[in-house]
Design a protein that fits this description.
Layout lengths: L4 H5 L8 E4 L4 E5 L5 E9 L2 E10 L4 H16 L4 H11 L6 H16 L4 H15 L9 H13 L3 H20 L13 H4 L11 H13 L4 H13 L3 H5 L6 E2 L4 E4 L10 E4 L2 H13 L21 H9 L11 H13 L4 H7 L6 H6 L5 H18 L9 H11 L8 H12 L4 E2 L2 E2 L2
Helix pairs in contact: 5-6, 5-7, 6-7, 10-12, 15-17
Length: 440
C-alpha cells in the first residue's frame, strides 16, 4: 500500500530500525533515533542494489518519487545509480577544473603526506595554474603537461622543471584514482628526459670561499643578497629558512633566530645561535627592510619576501667572470659542514646546527640540543669567515665600520685540542691550512 504524508508523519521510532514500503521499490527506513531515510531498491544484472535518496522530511514524498523515477530510468538503460553516486563522492564534480581539483589534492593528499608545502604551493601558483588552471581535469593532455614543464626548463631551471613535473604527476595520479582520468598524461614525459639529479659533493675550499665572498661584496647585486649569501654560509641555514624569515622570530638582544616549524624542513622548530658578526648583518638587514615584517622583503612590495629564485640569480651574477667552479647555494651548507668536521667539531653538534635529523638508534635516544657548543662553534666559524671577507665590507658608513671593529675585537676561536692535533697532523702531511681551516 502506497505511503501518504499522513502515514509518514505518524511513523514512530522503535528499538531496532524498520522499513515501510511505498511502491515500485521506494521505501523509508526508520531508525531508533527518529531519523527517516528514503531508499530505492532495484535489480540490475541479476543483483539487487539500493540507493539512498535523502532524508524525510527534507525530501518530501513527492520529490522522493521523482528521484526514484530518475534512478529507474538509469537502471532501464543498464546503469547503476548507486555506483554512480559512490563514484561521485570520490571524483567530485565531473567538470572540475585543474585549479579546483588542485585545492582538493593539496587538502586530501599533499598536506597529509608532506609537512612543508611552501615550495610545491609556489610551483602550483606560479608555474601551473596560470597556464592550465582553468582547463577541466578531464581534458588535460600530455601536450598541456609538456608545455608547463618545458616553460620552466626553457627558463634555465631544469631542477625546478623536475619539481613541477613531479607535482603534476602526484596530482594527476590522484585524478586517476578519483576516476577523472583514465591514465596519467605525465607518464608521457619521463623524469630522465626532464632532469636527471646528480649526487652533490661540492664543497668550497677556503680559497674559493674567500673569492666567492669578496666577489659578491664587490658585485652590483642588491645589498640584501650580499648579506644573505654571507649569512647562509655563516649560520648554516637553508636558503628557504632565510628567505621566509620574519623579524618576529629574530631576537638580536639574545643573539638567537628562531626558525618556526612551518619554515623548517624537519617540521620542528629550530634555534640558530647568532655570532657577533651575524647579529651585525641582521641589523643591516633590519635597516634595509624598513618597516616590513619580512627579513628580506621583495623588490616591489614590503608585504612579501623575495621570489624563491631571486637569490640564485644573484649568485650567478656575483660569480660572473670569476675563476671558480660552479656551485649552488645549498653547497654552502656542505662547505661549512665539511670544514667544521675536518677541524674537530663534534658531528652531533654540526648536524644539530645544520638542523638535520640524526638517524638510527642514536637519533632516537639523543635529544641533546648542544646549545652552548653550537654557540661556540658558530662564533668560531664566523671569526674564520670574517678573516676571509670582513663583515665590515657590508656595513654602511665609517662609524658603523668602526663599531664592527670594536665589537669583534678580542673574539677568540674556541680552543679545541682535537682540532689542534689535526692541524698539526695536517701540516706534517704538507697540506695548506688557512687560519686553522684546512684547504682541500
Amino acid at each position: 500500500m502506497a505511503l501518504t504524508d499522513t502515514a509518514l508523519k505518524a511513523l514512530k521510532p522503535r528499538e531496532k530500525p524498520y522499513t515501510v514500503t511505498d511502491s515500485r521499490g521506494l521505501y523509508v527506513e526508520v531508525f531508533p533515533t527518529g531519523g527517516v531515510v528514503w531508499r530505492y531498491r532495484y535489480r540490475l544484472n541479476g543483483r539487487y542494489e539500493k540507493l539512498t535518496l535523502g532524508k524525510y522530511p527534507a525530501l518530501t514524498l513527492k520529490n522522493a518519487r521523482l528521484k526514484r523515477d530518475e534512478a529507474a530510468q538509469a537502471v532501464a538503460l543498464g546503469q547503476s545509480p548507486a555506483r554512480k553516486k559512490q563514484l561521485a563522492k570520490v571524483t567530485g564534480p565531473e567538470n572540475a577544473t585543474v585549479a579546483e581539483f588542485a585545492e582538493r589534492f593539496f587538502r586530501d593528499i599533499q598536506q597529509r603526506d608532506r609537512k612543508n608545502n611552501t615550495t610545491p604551493r609556489r610551483y602550483l601558483d606560479k608555474d601551473i595554474l596560470p597556464y592550465i588552471g582553468a582547463k577541466p581535469v578531464r581534458e588535460i593532455t600530455a601536450e598541456d603537461v609538456r608545455s608547463v614543464v618545458w616553460r620552466k626548463k626553457d627558463q634555465g631551471f631544469d631542477a625546478a622543471a623536475g619539481q613541477v613535473r613531479g607535482l603534476l604527476k602526484r596530482m594527476l595520479d590522484y585524478a586517476v584514482t578519483c576516476g577523472l582520468l583514465d591514465h596519467n598524461p605525465v607518464a608521457a614525459l619521463p623524469m630522465r628526459h626532464v632532469h636527471r639529479a646528480a649526487a652533490r659533493d661540492r664543497a668550497l675550499t677556503p680559497e674559493e670561499i674567500q673569492l666567492f665572498l669578496r666577489s659578491a661584496q664587490a658585485s652590483n647585486i642588491r645589498r640584501q643578497f650580499k648579506i644573505a649569501l654571507h649569512l647562509i654560509l655563516m649560520t648554516l641555514v637553508r636558503k628557504s629558512e632565510l628567505m621566509l624569515a620574519q623579524w618576529k622570530d629574530v631576537h638580536l638582544d639574545e643573539a638567537e633566530w628562531h626558525v618556526p616549524q612551518e619554515n623548517s624542513k624537519t617540521g620542528k622548530p629550530h634555534i640558530v645561535y647568532l655570532s657577533k658578526q651575524a647579529v651585525l648583518l641582521f641589523k643591516e638587514l633590519k635597516i634595509l627592510a624598513s618597516n616590513s615584517a619580512w627579513v628580506l622583503p621583495g623588490r616591489g612590495t614590503l608585504a612579501k619576501p623575495f621570489a624563491h629564485n631571486a637569490i640564485n640569480s644573484a649568485l650567478k651574477v656575483a660569480l660572473q667572470d670569476q675563476e671558480i667552479p660552479a656551485f649552488t647555494i645549498h653547497d654552502l651548507r656542505r662547505t661549512a659542514s665539511t670544514l667544521l668536521h675536518e677541524n674537530g667539531w663534534a658531528s652531533d653538534v654540526v648536524e644539530k646546527a645544520l638542523n638535520h635529523t640524526i638517524g638510527g638508534v642514536r637519533g632516537i635516544y639523543n635529544r641533546a640540543e648542544y646549545a652552548e657548543q653550537r654557540r661556540e662553534m658558530l662564533q668560531s666559524w664566523a671569526d674564520y669567515i670574517d678573516k676571509l671577507a670582513p663583515v665590515s665590507n657590508l656595513v654602511v658608513g665609517q662609524l658603523a665600520a668602526t663599531r664592527v671593529g670594536e665589537q669583534l675585537t678580542g673574539v677568540a676561536r674556541a680552543p679545541d685540542s682535537t682540532a689542534t692535533r689535526e692541524r698539526q697532523s695536517t701540516r706534517k702531511r704538507g697540506l695548506r691550512v688557512i687560519d686553522g681551516y684546512r684547504a682541500k
